[in-house]
Structures are given as C-alpha cells and as structure tokens.
C-alpha cells in the first residue's frame, strides 16, 4: 500500500483506506475507531506478510479494496479443512458519494474474476460476520455456498466457498 503522496486530492492510500474502514457503512471491518496510524500499521503488516496481500482497485472509475490471503496461513488457519487451490478474500467498496445500483455486485464479480485469473486458484473461501446479510446475498449471487458457522477470535463467521465452476454458473446467466 502506497503511503506517499499522489493519490486523490494528494491523499495516500492509507488515508483513503482509513476513510473507508472507519465509515459507518464499514462496521463489519471492525475498524470504526481506528486512527490513521492503526490503518497504516495494519496494511504495512499485510504488505510484509508472505501470505496476505491488499490491493486498491478501480471499477468504472470507483475505488474498492481487495485483500487476498492463503487461508491455511491467515484468517482461517486451523478453522476448516482446506483444499488444494483455496484462496481467501475480503473486499470493501469505498463509501459512495452517490450510490450506484449494482456496483457492489460488479465489484465482487471483478474480485472473483481477478482471483480465478490465477489458474492455481480452484476455490475462494470467505468468512463474513454471520449478521452481515448484505454480503451473504452478494456471495450467493456469485456462487458461494455456506459450509458452516465458525468461531473466530473477533466474530462468529459464516464460512463459505465458491469454486470456479460455481462462479461461472452463477455469473453467465441470461440476465448478466
């Protein structure tokens, strides 16, 4: 994550992400009270970790955050039966100045396409909070199936997975 100048309005990536993760709409990121320094430290740790990455992406000129991780090393280590080719994912859409219908679905679709562009990835796993019904609906729309509820140190999570085939079946329908 770039923490230097040169971003929107001269803000660093860390300043942008801080704005996003502390926004009330991002409550499930559990960083609502985070200071800029906390976000810088968190994403510096992600950047330094050999099994975790964070990216700022653009879709139709609007920004989003994507994290990719090895679930056998980060987030889900020891909490589920990993399969070869598993990759973990988080995504966050920047709080919109003007909401755009269907944008978040377009972002998760873009994130999944990006992950499956790697031929080694066979399945994407996620662990959203059990009460995050909006993300559960988005996950279902792109092919995720619930495996089970799991207990993580910070939350009760709904472990879900989506294979390449499930994603393709969910996103190649006539209405897409």
TrEMBL record:
- The source's domain of life comes to Bacteria
Name the InterPro entries for this protein: Acyl_CoA_acyltransferase, Acyltransferase_MbtK/IucB-like
Q: Annotated Gene Ontology MF terms?
A: acyltransferase activity
Identify the metabolic or biological route this protein is part of: Siderophore biosynthesis; mycobactin biosynthesis
Which residues does the UniProt record annotate as the domain Acyltransferase MbtK/IucB-like conserved? 7-53
Keywords recorded for this protein, A-Z: Acyltransferase, Transferase
Return the SMART domains for the record.
Answer: AlcB (SM01006)
Q: Could you tell me what this protein does? A: Acyltransferase required for the direct transfer of medium- to long-chain fatty acyl moieties from a carrier protein (MbtL) on to the epsilon-amino group of lysine residue in the mycobactin core.
Do you know which PANTHER family this protein is assigned to? LYSINE N-ACYLTRANSFERASE C17G9.06C-RELATED (PTHR31438:SF1)
UniProt name for this protein: Lysine N-acyltransferase MbtK
What organism is recorded for this protein?
Streptomyces glycanivorans
């Amino acid at each position: 994550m770039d923490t230097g100048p040169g971003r929107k309005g001269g803000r660093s990536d860390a300043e942008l992400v801080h704005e996003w993760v502390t926004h009330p709409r991002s409550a499930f990121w559990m960083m609502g009270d985070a200071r800029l320094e906390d976000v810088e430290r968190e994403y510096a740790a992600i950047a330094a970790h050999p099994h975790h990455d964070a990216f700022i992406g653009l879709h139709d000129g609007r920004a989003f955050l994507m994290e990719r991780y090895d679930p056998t090393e980060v987030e889900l280590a020891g909490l589920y039966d990993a399969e070869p080719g598993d990759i973990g994912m988080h995504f966050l859409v920047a709080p919109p100045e003007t909401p755009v219908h269907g944008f978040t679905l377009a972002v998760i679709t873009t994130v999944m396409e990006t992950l499956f562009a790697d031929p080694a990835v066979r399945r994407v796993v996620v662990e959203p909070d059990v009460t995050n019904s909006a993300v559960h609906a988005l996950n279902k729309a792109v092919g995720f199936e619930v495996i089970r509820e799991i207990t993580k140190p910070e939350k009760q999570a709904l472990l879900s997975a989506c294979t390449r085939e499930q994603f393709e079946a969910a996103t190649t329908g006539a209405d897409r």
